Amino acid sequence: MSLTRKDLLGLEHFDRKDLQTVLDSVKPFKSLFTRSVKKAPTLIGKTVVTLFYEPSTRTKTSFEIAAKRLSADVVNVAINTSSVVKGESLIDTGKTLEAMKADYIIIRHSLAGAPDILARNLSASIINAGDGFHEHPTQGLLDLYTMYEKKKKFEGLKVLLVGDILHSRVAKSNIWALTKMGAEVAVAGPPTLIPIGIENLGVKVYYNLDEAVKKADVVNILRIQLERQKENLFPSVHEYVELYQLTKERLATARPGVLIMHPGPMNRGIEISSDVADSSNAVINEQVTNGIAVRMAVLYLLSPKRKNASAD
User: Fold this and answer.
1) Which of 29, 104, 137, 250 shows its CA 20 to 30 Å from the CA of 72?
2) What is the pTM for the complete model shown?
3) Is 5 helix (H, G, I), strand (E, B) or coil?
4) Bridge partners of residue 184, in order along the sequence
5) CA dist 226 to 53, 166, 236, Å?
6) Strand pairing partners for 10?
7) Surface-to-core class of residue 247, CB atoms within 10 Å of its CB (0-12 exposed, 13-18 middle, 19+ buried)
8) CA pair distance 312, 28, nearest whole angstrom
9) β-pair type (158-162, 184-188)
10) What is the edge-to-edge ordering of all strands in the sheet holding 184-188?
11) DSSP one-letter string for 264-298
């Protein structure tokens, strides 16, 4: 199995075959977690560089663990102590890393399109770890895999995304992936946090969470970006909690076996109550575990030597 591309920039341009290729590749890597020696020789001699212009705990650590479990050499570039603070451009930073024989550059950037710029100018594989409000493809893939693992299908699966859809790169990657795999996707949130024209992506829009939850097989709750409250996009946190927090009472009206997901970090007591986050319906910690396996699969599928590599 392989991907017909050297970079992972977003899921908008993935087709169903590409998505299924990733899903089919994850399980062997997840099985590594149960072994006494949790490493494979897949990327021996390869160098993976993490280049994060924005803070990250889960994504950055997950990529680093994934690369190390594939036996790659991992280098973390600390932006605040790099030449970026001296005015070095993104392309020059990338070319410098490539001159040091970086095989993969995993980048998170506040500006949409930054990974694409590197991909067009470098021969190294570029992996988008989140760019502005654009996409977060590996989060989309790990969410997709978690649903696939638990529900065994996508056709007819009703997935509800709740919260700040407007600013969420996770929402966009989820929508692109899930609609291509045949799921029925809906979004719910305040009107000011729902993008105009999102229905054109094949998504149903709800402004009433109580109505939306009743029809859901999966509820994926997005972090309320409290920094956006400075823009007065909803009246107050208290009102958001009253109208859009997923509570035990709302969960009780959902379909039997509903999955509760959250890409993290959670604002407990705001977008999700603690009893829901810690309930048996929640697979939030499993998403984190699956994130490592999904990122191992992505590194493997983008590897120039993938035909000779093995997860065994």
Assistant:
1) 137
2) 0.93
3) coil
4) 158
5) 20, 13, 10
6) none
7) middle
8) 8
9) parallel
10) 204-206, 184-188, 158-162, 218-221, 259-261
11) S---BTTTB-HHHHTSTTB-HHHHHHHHHHHHHHH
Q: CA distances (Å), 292 to each of 60, 226, 287, 297, in order?
A: 10, 27, 9, 9
248-295, pLDDT tens digit by residue?
A: 999 999 999 999 999 988 999 999 999 999 999 999 999 999 999 999
Q: Is 241 exposed, middle or buried (0-12, 13-18, 19+ CB in 10 A)?
A: middle
| Paired tokens of 66 | 């994934």
Tokens of 97: 């890393």
Residue 63 DSSP one-character state: H
SS3 breakdown of the chain: % helix, strand, coil, rounded to 5? 45, 15, 40
CA-angle at 63, arms to 58 and 67, nearest 5°: 150
